Amino acid sequence: MGDKSFNKNERASNRETLSGIPVKEVYGPEDVKNKELGMAGEPPYLRGAYDGMYTRQPWRIFMLTGAGDVEEARARVEYALAQGETGFAAETDMSTWLFFDVDHPEVMKRKQDVGWFGAPVMSLNDYRDYYGSLPLGRLYCHTGAVLPHMTPYFMSCFLRVLEEKGIPANKVNSTGQGDFFIAYISILDPSLIPPSAGLKLNCDGIEYAVKHVPRLTPVSIAGNNIRECGANSYQEMAAILSCAVSYIEELLGRNLKIDDFAYAIGGVNLSTGSDFFEDICKFRAMRRMWYNLLRRYGAREQKSLRLRIHGLPLGSIYTFQQPLNNIVRGTYTVLAAVLGGAQSIGTPSFDEAICTPTQLAHTTALRTQQILMNESNVTCTVDPLGGSYFIEALTDEIEGKAWDFFNKIQGRGGFISCLESGWIQNEVAESSMKSARQIESGKRKIVGVNCFEMDEEPYKFRPFKPNPRTWELSMASLERLRKDRDQVRVEGAKKELRKSIRNKENTMPATLEAVRSGLTVGEVGDIYRELYGRWGVPSMAGLKS
Amino acid sequence: MKGRIRVIIGKTSLDGHWRGVQAVATALRDAGMEVVYVGMSSAEMTVRAAMQESADVIGLNVGASYSQVEELIRLLGENEMEDVLVILGGVIPLADIPKLKAIGVNEVFPPGSKLNKIVKYIQENVNAQ
Question: Please, which pLDDT band fits residue A1 given cuts at 50, 70 and 90?
């Protein structure tokens, strides 16, 4: 048991925000510097991306699902959709993320770990088994590309499966992620290709989508991922913008026009966590910053200037102790995303700190959104907090902090170069450590962790465990594929993919053929690792590695 | 008089959650220990690193199954390195702790463990050996 002296309800919570912005006892009209707030759906989109917001259309309930083998994961998604989710993202295994086939030595050492985070997808066959029976085309969906190097391969699988099902790809609203934060800040593994190569592959996907499938947005800069690693809110905002600049400059360099592709990068994930008001202000400020950034690049069209936000309550604020309390944390963080004006929201499940979510926990997370949407009447008007002295002052304040941090990144050579040097990772690690120290000292209270602890866990539930045969099933699928595919076509596809990389062409056409001919993620990963090289993982916080 | 305490820290599974690992590693370094982080490293690679660095302690973050922990304990035995302290952290159900200690893990620090408790445990138990 911890120090009982923490078990006291404080008179006032911290007089600064979570990112360290000082907060006054009370705010008044003199604190609101900016009197021109505009309306939702109008520049600078401070008050909302769309006219009317939730009075016209509710947010999309877009949650992440994934467990065990392909069959189990697919059943989970189907169940969630039957319960009322309005979009889906189906998760894959870490071996897939690293572009390893399941007989790669690194996976062979950990056969029993396969399936703990999602289903392994190594080929178009696996993709078809997994995504093929889901209602692609009817609902907003995710291509499954989580990391930058996954973008061309997973987009190709997605497009191929749509084609097989006779669904015209240019009629389907969908997104990928291709996120740098999860790859180069969260995973930190030397099997990854360098961030500059990740940028190239993501932009191949964006360029292809802009020209051929404009309703597919291949990337979503996922601020939640940098935040889960410990970044604060203004660091998250700045890193998103700085990542956007790297896309913009690469795509302008390919002779695309800003208004042709801005929409494809203008959907981002923003987190909500343990500072309710700061996170609401972040959403509002982020839209205004996006507008100003895109104007600098000469964007003129509304669809370019208007930022769309997927709100993501942070799983990292959930606790292992007294896990049902996490339902409450989920509720206030979803509410923050709603008050910030998110277009879609995904809630973590109450057992998030313990295991890959169980079906009960996932359903409860879904119900949290449905209760807020249908029972609480929070959707009755646009930007209900707009004009609040505190909210407007804090919105301006956090925007200023975010621009400062953005300028720091740009001053160090920009996003990609700060990822390669490890500067961003170290800033994030420092913020993470600061927060760990605050929790250790009791400056920041976490119920059940450093105050109001219990000797006995009051709730019992059975954590998720994957099908122990997941590796075996995946291996069987891989063996079938290797036996059935046309080896001559496979070799030809490998050659074409290598050629497109060497000639610095857009790799999408070669990847579409690679996927069709049966090349696996491991084979494509090997080609990437050979031709792009491996990432030299920067050392973290002065640690030897 | 022995020099600085040397610690190898790694993750047993293919998994990207390093935030807790980094917090522990930083706290140990700040307490004067020498910390080498080996990332998502297999049991074999972790033991090799421990051998090269003459480590006193191996700290493992466990993310999924315990297969790599079992393998690591076996390899330590095979190499006559039983005196290396093995401690675990990560999302470990409390009910599994006795089972892990029975196979040779010295101590388990489940989520919510205080950093200074981990530091103190290592200081007391390395010096005791």
Answer: very low
pLDDT over 90 (residue A448): yes
Specify if B68 maps to a domain.
yes
Give the largest CA-CA distance in chain B: 39
Domain assignment present for residue B3? The answer is no
Distance (Å, rounded) from C-alpha A175 to C-alpha A487?
32
Contacts of B68 in chain A (CB under 8 A): 109-110
Going along chain A from its start, the domains and CATH numbers come out as 4-441 (3.20.20.240)
Under an 8 A CB cutoff, do A543 and B94 touch? Answer: no
Of A95, A354, A540, the CB nearest to B14: A95
Q: 478-537 in A: which are within 8 Å (CB) of B? A: 537
Please give the pLDDT value at position B13.
85
Residue of A nearest to B37 (CA): A545
A:B CB pairs within 8 Å: 114
Could you read off the pLDDT of A10-63 as tens digits, one per residue? 655 568 999 999 999 999 999 998 888 999 999 999 999 999 999 999 999 999
CB environment A235-258: b (16+ within 10 A), e (fewer): bbbbbbbbbbbbbbebbeeeebeb
For residue B92, being part of any structural domain is answered with yes
Decide if B18 and A98 are in contact by the 8 Å CB cutoff. Answer: no
DSSP A249-295: HHHHHTT--HHHHHHHH-EEEEEE-S-HHHHHHHHHHHHHHHHHHHH
Which of B4, B7, B14, B34 should we substitute to test contact with A (largest number of A Cβ atoms within 10 Å)? Answer: B14
pLDDT band at A138 (very low <50, low <70, confident <90, very high): confident
Q: Are residues B91 and A355, on separate chains, in Cβ contact within 8 Å?
A: yes
Q: Which of residues 28-87 of B touch A (CB under 8 A)?
A: 29, 34-40, 42-44, 63-65, 67-68, 71
pLDDT for the residue A544: 56
Q: Which residues have C-beta within 8 Å of that of residue A506, sequence separation ≥ 6?
A: A204, A207, A208, A500
| Of A453-467, B71-85, B109-123, the least confident | A453-467
Kindly report the number of other CB atoms within 10 A of residue A60's CB atom. 19
Q: Which of B14, B22, B25 sits opposite A113 (nearest CB)?
A: B14
Write out the residue range of the structural domain in which residue B65 sits: 10-128
Judge if pTM exceeds 0.80: yes
CA angle B39, A246, A532 (to 5 degrees): 50
Does residue B96 belong to any structural domain of this protein? yes
How many domains is chain B built from? 1
The residue type of A162 is: L
Best of B11, B12, B18, B21 to mutate (most A CBs within 10 Å, chain A)? B18
| DSSP string over A148-196 | GGGHHHHHHHHHHHHHHTT--GGG--EE----HHIIIIII--TTSPPHH
Give the pLDDT confidence of A367-378 residue by residue, as tens digits: 999 999 999 999
Which CATH number is B117's domain given? Answer: 3.40.50.280
Give Cα separations from A225 to A23, A154, A222, A536 (angstroms): 27, 20, 6, 21
pLDDT of residue A363: 96
